[in-house]
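#onboarding

Welcome to the new folks! Below is a worked example of what a typical request in this channel looks like: someone posts a single protein sequence, and someone else replies with the predicted structure as tokens. Don't worry about understanding the tokens yet, we'll cover that in week two.

Example request:
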Amino acid sequence: MTGPAMKAADAEHSLPKQGLLTRREAILRVSAMLGGAALVGQTAMLAACSSSGTKPLAPGTIANGARFTDSDLALLDEIAETMLPETSTPGAKAAGVGAFMALMVTDAYYPSDQAIFREGMAAVDARCREAIGRDFLAASPADRLKLLEALDAEQFDQMRNQPPDAPRHFFRMMKELALLGYFTSEIGYTQAMRYAETPGRFDPCAPYAPGETAWANPGF
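Example response:
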């Protein structure tokens, strides 16, 4: 890699002048370690991280001044748990993914995308009541999964058919944050994946048998 590409890479990975790593830089680096666009695509999260002109919001607030309540966090926990349930390893709820999602929306999303996310949370309950007559938290695991599968298909069709700069579907935001939160948590890193604090040498062609868990990135 030479010329402008190398300069851009050097700039992206350099520490700020004062030697401290900001939250925006940390989010960008975590995303890059987990595959960057392959995991989170061109999300509002990364867009917000690259913006220096947006006034930060106070902790715990969203675009319209409301706060994530305990019931909001419970809803996010159960949405994430439906995507990443407890099996032989703890699920998303045990990893505290709901609180992570709320923090990321508050600290890293533009106000317009925060509004989409919060409207999406209300839409999950509304769609659930329409389908089975109950809120998401009162629904059975099977009904929750069926609803989220429908939302996932909906966001995929929207992503495929709309231009790249169109507003993001709220469920894509939820899915991306759930994956990011779980697989950067201690539970996800050390139990859902194989983790070696000192991995030794780099082996790009390590043997892998079907069904084995992936190795956690030792550089994170």
